[in-house]
Amino acid sequence: MTAPLALARYRDGGSVRLGLVAGDRIRAVSGDDLGAADLNAFLAQPDWDRLRRLAEVDDEGWMPLADVVLTAPVEPRQVLQAGANYRTHVVQLIMAGLTRGGEAGWSPDEVRAKAESIMDARAASGRPFIFLGLPQCVVGDDVPLVLPDYSETHDWELELAVVIGREAFRVDAEHALDHVAGYTIVNDITTRDRVFPPDVGDIGADWYRSKNAPGFLPTGPFLVPSTAVDASDLSVKLELNGDVMQDATTAELVFDVKTLVAAASQTLPLLPGDLLLTGSPAGNGQHWKRYLRDGDVMTGTIEGLGTQVVRCLAEGPAV
Hints:
The protein is α+β, with helices and mostly antiparallel strands and 319 residues long. Helix content is 23%, strand content 29%. The chain contains 9 helices and 20 strands. A 6-stranded mixed sheet has the order 7-6-18-11-12-15. Strand 1 (6-12) and strand 2 form a beta hairpin. Helix 4 crosses helix 5 (108-125). The radius of gyration is 20 Å and the shape is globular.
């Protein structure tokens, strides 16, 4: 993390406490420190200058960051997710679909040109694709990712996540960033063979069963203030057991943060502390034909926001 300060949540015995991170140190913060009852109340009117002054206090309240166990830095009431929002990724998906269809005789350049024209039309339409996740799937990377035994197609999707600040309802893109308190990292785990289950025909995608198993939204470790982040061009990289699988930049987003926040707010109010995932770049397991297995370690880094390390475990027998 390169920001001068961030918020995090850490384990203290059997409870979880909110902490202020500055450099390689962390200290507990109270409601008095925040000037608010709790984290989401603070995010509704985030006073980062107040916390910046606390970060400058040199007293015995600080602990080495390496000595605490961090967990998810947010407690969202709603999770919204943008799909198909990285240009290169979606062009690859469209090209694969075109090749499987009647365009099988086209040259690679013809297929790519067609896919890019589809993406250009979508970007010009101004209509992001947004769906819902479940907040109880949000966990920290201190919790191992248990791979459900009903599938062998569990996949990774590293994403920049927006943390909502002041409530946003039917805001326009010009004012949308006024409602962003900060950013964090989320790995949106997806069970591929449950996205389009064969037993429902053409009804549509099953986002509930494919994305909402326990722990399927590893989040954090830090909540970094929006004032310290330029979300327009951040490096996004995921490594699997040390091998780079995703390596892109948020400059590839089809719809940027302000457009996503504005679009999501048109249907229902976005509440302080809510998460809005911005989509995942090319390089999923589906692309590599390599899905998550017992013992895998995913290391996800987004520039300026830190690194999360998620360890995978096979689901054990029911007790």
